[in-house]
Amino acid sequence: MNTLPRARMAHLPTPIEPMPRLSAALGGPNLWIKRDDQTGLALGGNKTRKLEFLVAQAQANGAQTLVTAGAVQSNHCRQTAAAAAHFGLQCILVLAGNQPGHTSGNVLLDELLGAEIVWTERAVRDQTLKQTFEGAWEAGRRPFLIPYGGSSPTGAASYAYAIKELVDQCVDSSLRIPVPDWIVFASSSGGTQAGMAAGVKLFPTPCKVLGISIDEKANVLKSRVADLANQTLQLFDAPLRLSLDEILVNDDFITPGYGVMTAVEKEAVQLFARQEGILLDPVYTGRAAAGLINLHRQGFFRPGENVMFWHTGGTPALFADQYQDINL
Fold first, then answer.
1. What kind and span of H or E run contains 71?
2. Per-residue pLDDT for 1 more than 70?
3. Helix or strand or coil: residue 127?
């Protein structure tokens, strides 16, 4: 199996913790959490793992500027800006949405980290990103384009390694962590889920990997994840492939739209905070946790199963102006 170049910056391995109070409050199952909100880069998150490999790729290409895109409160963009600062690179972020009257949440951190922000509309985001990259190239800034969400085979490979990290933690008898029956997490651009799906193939484990869709219909996300997971397996030069049926997605909460916080996200954020002292965000982990809670209430998980919620970060969005009614 190929070993990929890596620019190390993440605090790894991230902790795994039981959530006994939340388990009791919900009446089961046995809940655990993998704390990728503690990866250490500008308040952490899952993109830090991906950026270790993407930055290494950028450095190998002689890049001087990282260019990427995301929504206004993009966690990916915030962590890309931090990675650029950490390695002495410039950073240009293309943010799709209305420029706020004053900065808050991730946008405040983007500016603090020294990123140059280009504002655009969602409908023309990809066009603006292309123009921004070409302009940086013509200006001699040696740009390197990081895809939306870091969701390329190189970025996804980080979560194949993360599955190996999880397996190692579970087999360490001193930690007393059971191999989870289920891993549940937020899935949107698909890179994290594709990496996990590839990782379960590369490092065999009985875990079932279930992505809670944030904004895509299940059939669309499953196809995207399967394609990316198979490209990731090819990157490792592994003679393995995933079928569409092996990709598990739940899309019960996408109807309100991306970034629209409803009562279910509020309940999930409040339950994690008040039962375990763990902070989720309203967009990704809040919606994913709502999915986990809803599945439990439907009887989806069997009594006694170990369910791991993989916390992908996003805490700064709690402090964005549009989510200030989280306690209502």
1. strand 65-71
2. no
3. helix
Structure tokens at 151: 């969701």
For residue 279 the two structure tokens come to 């902070």
**From 23, 74, 104, 189, the catalytic residue:** 74
Transcribe 237-306 into DSSP letters. Answer: T-S----GGG-EEE-TT-TT-TT---HHHHHHHHHHHHHH-----TTTHHHHHHHHHHHHHTT-SPTT-E
- Cα angle 72, 88, 61 (rounded to 5 degrees) comes to 90
**Mean pLDDT, the chain, integer:** 96
Query: Each residue of 184-231: pLDDT tens digit?
Result: 999 999 999 999 999 999 998 999 999 999 999 999 999 999 999 999
158 is catalytic: no
Q: DSSP labels for 2-52?
A: --------S--SPPEEE-HHHHHHHT--EEEEEEGGGS-STT--THHHHHH
Q: How much is the pLDDT for 327?
A: 66
State pLDDT tens for residues 12-30.
999 999 999 999 999 989 9
Residue 147 DSSP class: P
314 alpha-carbon distance from chain centroid? 8
Cβ-Cβ contacts under 8 Å for 140 (sequence gap 6 or more): none
Looking up tokens 């970034």 gives 259
Specify the pLDDT at position 185.
98
Structure tokens at 162: 């993360």
What domains lie within the chain, and their CATH numbers? 16-45+151-323 (3.40.50.1100), 48-149 (3.40.50.1100)
Q: What is the pLDDT of residues 294-306, one digit of tens each?
A: 999 999 999 999 9
Say what the pLDDT of residue 328 is.
Answer: 54
Alpha carbons within 13 angstroms on the beta-carbon side of residue 206 total 8
Residues 22 and 275 sit within 8 Å (Cβ to Cβ): yes
User: Which pLDDT value is given to residue 176?
Assistant: 94
